[in-house]
Amino acid sequence: MPPIALGFIRFLIASLVMSLFIRKFIKYEKKDILYILLTAFLGITSYFIFENVALIYTTATNASLIAATVPIFYLIFFDFTSKKVSNKLNYFGSILGLTGVSILILNGKFILKLNPLGDILMFGAVISWVFYTFTIQRLEKYDNMVVSRDIILFGTLMFIPFVLLEIILNFGKVYNETLLNVFAITSILYLAVFSSAIAYLFWNKAIRLSGPKTVTNGIYYIPIVSIIADSLILKNIPNIYSIFGAIMVLMGIYIAEKGNKLKLKA
Which of 14, 51, 74, 220: CA 20 to 30 A from 123? Predict the structure, then answer.
């Protein structure tokens, strides 16, 4: 499927699912309407246009490694906007976690193929997510479920002009084969329900409960979960790189969280 159309269909389904189960409506203050629109664009439209298009031009390995830089970039952005310097343990733990993720993803094959356009677009996705994580905190006074639903709804609507542009550039080509592919349909439904509707609810709620620094470091858990799933479902035994990388990730997250607690006490 075309990358932007895929993002649109994914979040259109997510919007319908969330609207079906979340019937509550709230009246936002005027200034917060801007934050709703901004977070919708950054966390839905901008992020997935950058990511989906990037994967046409770069490898999944490059994209995974670049996506794993979100905690570092958020830490730098947080310190810059708050005009404070985070505890050194935050940076050390985050760098250690990123190193562990790199070992997990590369899996002993320390060869990367640079794809300038795709890699730059992927960094655009990272920056979009950092800004999204920062701005979503402005809406914590409202119900998390309603905010998450509205963000996905407006983000879906903002996809429309980009989808139309994509159709024009593709000369109106229609990908009918996707509609007849059961695996593709199942994949889209999984992305829409689990990786969009439910995941955004969890992410936004987690920020309220634990703070953005802790939550962004949680991104480092993704490859560990992948290894566990790979072992249990596909019966692939982790190699030495996977085990060593996972240990580094866990150590990095532990150290970074220690830094967060020390900062709170100070």
Answer: 14
| The pair of three-digit structure tokens given for residue 188, joined into one six-digit string | 């889209």
The residues, ordered by sequence, that sit 6+ positions from 242 with a Cβ below 8 Å of its Cβ are: 104, 107, 227
Nearest to 103 by CA among 220, 228, 236: 220
**Structure tokens belonging to residue 38:** 């901004």
DSSP conformation letters of 9-25:
HHHHHHHHHHHHH----
Instruction: Assess if residue 194 is contained within a domain.
Output: yes
Q: Is residue 266 part of a domain?
A: no
Number of independent structural domains in the chain: 1
pLDDT in tens, 49-86: 999 999 999 888 788 889 999 999 999 999 999 888 88
8 Å CB contact between 28 and 183: no
d(CA 189, CA 11): 10
Q: Which domain holds residue 109?
A: 3-261
Domain membership of residue 190 (yes or no) is yes
Q: 43 CB contacts (<8 Å, ≥6 apart)?
A: 128, 129, 132, 136, 151, 155, 200
Q: Is the pLDDT of residue 171 over 80?
A: no
Nearest-CA neighbor of 91 among 106, 103, 74? 74
Stretch (H or E) spanning 175: none
**Torsional sign, CA 178, 184, 189, 194:** negative
